[in-house]
């Protein structure tokens, strides 16, 4: 479905490209041996390299390079065996050296693509322009003192991957789908935790508008948007702002803007007027980064199965619908949980229970799959009891709730509460007879042609048996008598 | 190529170097002299020549991903003119 902004003189098309900064998962920083872990007392995860002391030299972290390569492979992108580092120069208090080491002309990863899926089930390919390695800056705090800003350099020098998309995105929904898919791939790869609240994934959003068939018009860059929802909102309001400017005869200035979620508007960041004049030049401290083809192949051989491949395998191997497979692979932990439940069991039954009652229970109890009150094996054990006829589907729901509360196994609960399904035909026949004796009027109606009452009798018999009757046998017994 | 006074002023601002208006003509002359040199170098035909980054076939050495540094706040803050507790401080940066 095409997303258009209705202007005064007709519809406008939206053009969006995203630059995502993803913090690399590693023990130490990109160019120093200080810890890269989040938190920590202020200025304790800092080496003299990070603090920009004279004479300090950067030495690159092999694992950060490996993480960038893994990500490139996961994005089906070209891996450049030779890349370079440049200095991106700007002055800010939390950037001690006065430059960020980045990759400008020769990034480590070239073109790739991500397939996104939209709500209507359609899919689109969004191109990846490049991925490069760079350093994060420190953190400034402006609210601690009336006259001073406070600086913590713990984050300074931590490795980031900047992942740049082509201007292929045409709606806020596509931007959201792109970010979710990218985050899913990064999490599967274990190269970035994708946590936008903690700032380990942030997006700069390039937005422009145009009439259908036109070349691109001037774009604005909305910096540092820190949630997927805000990215979608920022695009929407920025596009409307630009349409209004063009339609009132003005022209959009290329500039950096900030999204204010409270007012749902974007504002110009005048302080950044020189922001695009970074005077890049090759970093004289760093030789070219050269990696071996064999190493890249080794990293490729050890990549985990990625979401798209896993989803397809779930459809093929377990015969579950595409939608269900998509829900199950959204997180690796969920996919692993499902596979444990499904192993050696009916995979559709397993999918229904995991997506249905199990997810609902997690939601209700505010738990995640990592600290789930019911283990995959325990849920599997309950499915075994359904499959072998020990309990019926209705009783299973009660057993499940009980498992949730007590943490007991399904078998223990069934024994303790005597929930075993009644398959003794004598007992079922007796219950059927009792129900018929109690409802002579209904019986007469049924016999005079009111077939729908069959369901009523089934319900009454099950009720008389406290839900424990085997539904198939109850049906059979009723049919026989009626 | 030659730089006008406005460009010289802008370069100085980007580099955070304060200059007097009276210094502009001299700086402009110096920078234009350097650019003249670069233009001479640009006359050399280097099509099909790989950029040389050093002598020999040196490439970046990589280190293993282990924490070997940090936990040295005193040393890190030792030259800070106005540290406050565990932080560096700077004159307020107003966004």
3D architecture notes:
The complex is a heterodimer of chains A (482) and B (95). By secondary structure, chain A is of the alpha+beta class. Chain A folds into 3 domains: 4-298, no CATH class; 305-417, no CATH class; 425-481, Orthogonal Bundle (Arc Repressor Mutant, subunit A), CATH 1.10.10.410. In chain A, 39% of the residues lie in helices and 19% in strands. Chain A has helices at residues 62-74, 172-189, 228-247, 293-301, 307-318, 322-329, 332-342, 347-365, 376-387, 393-406, 410-417, 425-438, 440-447, 453-464, 471-481; strands spanning 4-7, 10-23, 60-61, 82-83, 86-89, 99-102, 112-117, 123-135, 139-141, 148-152, 159-165, 201-210, 220-225, 256-260, 265-268, 281-282, 289-290. In chain A, strands 1, 2, 7, 8, 11, 12, 13, 14 and 15 form a 9-stranded mixed β-sheet that branches. Chain A has a 3-stranded antiparallel β-sheet with strand order 6-5-16, with no helix packed on it. In chain A, a hairpin with a 4-residue loop joins strand 14 (256-260) and strand 15. The longest helix of chain A is centred in the middle third of the chain and has 20 residues, at 228-247. Chain B is mainly alpha-helical. Helix content of chain B is 36%, strand content 6%. Classes of the chains: A alpha+beta (482), B mainly alpha (95). At the A-B interface, strand 3, helix 1, strand 10 and strand 17 of A face strand 1, helix 3 and strand 2 of B. Chain A: Belongs to the GatB/GatE family. GatB subfamily. Chain A: It catalyses: L-glutamyl-tRNA(Gln) + L-glutamine + ATP + H2O = L-glutaminyl-tRNA(Gln) + L-glutamate + ADP + phosphate + H(+); L-aspartyl-tRNA(Asn) + L-glutamine + ATP + H2O = L-asparaginyl-tRNA(Asn) + L-glutamate + ADP + phosphate + 2 H(+). Chain A: Its EC number is 6.3.5.-. Chain A: It is an enzyme of class 6 (ligase).
Features of this protein?
heterodimer; A: alpha+beta; Arc Repressor Mutant, subunit A; 3 domains; three-stranded antiparallel β-sheet; 15 helices; 17 strands; B: 95 residues; mainly alpha; Histone, subunit A; 2 strands; 6% strand; flat; ligase (chain A); GatB (chain A); transferase activity (chain A)
